[in-house]
Amino acid sequence: MPAILGIVMVLLIATGVGGYFLLMSDDSETPTEQRPANAMTRLWKTPSPTTEEPSLGKNGLRSMWFNDDDVIFGDPQGVRAYNRASGKKKWTVKTPKGAGEVCGMSKEASDEGVGAVIFDAGGDDCSYLSVVDTDSGRTLWSKNFSAGDEAETSPQVVVNSKVVAVAMGRGYAGFTIAGGAKVWELTARGHDCTTTVALSPQYRAVGSDCYDAKPKTQLDLQHLEYSTIHSKVPGESRAAGDILSDRPLTMRMSSDANVIDSDSSLSTFTDDGDLDKTFKLEGELKDLRLEPRSTYVDEEEEVLVSSYGTSDGLAALDLKTGKLLWKKRGSAGIAGVDNEGLIVLTDSPEGAAPGADTALVAINVRDGKEKVMGTLYDPKQDLSSVGLLSVAWNGKVNELYVQGEGVQDDRPSVQAFKLPNN
User: Long-range pairs for 404-409 at CB < 8 Å and ≥24 separation?
Assistant: First the structure.
């Protein structure tokens, strides 16, 4: 995975219905003097299918990718690309023959413009994979990984410049981008093993506990683009959980692979794959919601920021000491990151009076200080509360994308907003 800080993501997604966008001007809806001075301009709005609660798992929906010209939305009804400037629909990913609705998408597409979409293979078995070109929507190849006897509910898929790696059905394997040829397949170290697997665009982590192999427990780390970069941590008995960052390699791990509420810990690794720091997730650290799609590490590789608590709060963890640097409670939707810091949509910005307009703020990851970038102003007051919206930020063009239902008529839509000129 490229530097987590470089990743734009917590992901919203929505699909347009029919491809016709209603272009709107905020100035035509309300007198200029009633608008906040820093109000963001709404570029366009389009209907979307019925809103469902977004999933922040490894490959959850709603999701979003970007290419040079388009915003690519995905939800259970499909994956579609829309021109960022005009809102015009450009393409829709073709559903493979025999597949059903979309189950998930890779967290992001590769820098080369390749993404992965997971479809239902039948019976809520999320095992049908399509690899697509994000510029044209063309399907490069598809494979059905269904095991037949047990439905896959937690598929994993990642994409980088060389391979597509999957963990679904009973298969753990990597395939070439171009033609889908298998380049590796994971096999157990012994005949009597409990194995856990975590994937990111750059790494594969495999924890194993084998009664008929030595050492009995081991963690294997493999770089997915460069086969010569690999390491082993013999004696590591913890189960591999989610990889939260590639720089540094940061992973949530559990003491027992078969216990959902098992004691968890957070570990970082050196560039050589050696275990570096480990922090037990207890006390106030237990409230960190370490989900791959809403966890970020700064460019200096020193601070991790994650959702926190049960009310959409945020917190920052010092990866050198294991101490919380700051925490915030309230309603906040992480939209992405850029050189300003963590970009968050919140209805409770610091210093604002109760009932203030929803604001887009940049949070300094080291000290938690907030800078208001713009106001998400809707003269019709038809935007849902932040906790019900999916949001994403494109820092290259200073645009925010919002998906959710309207307050007035419950009709879901996707909207694009642009920061005011400073």
Answer: 404/51, 405/51, 406/382, 407/381, 407/382, 407/383, 408/380, 408/382
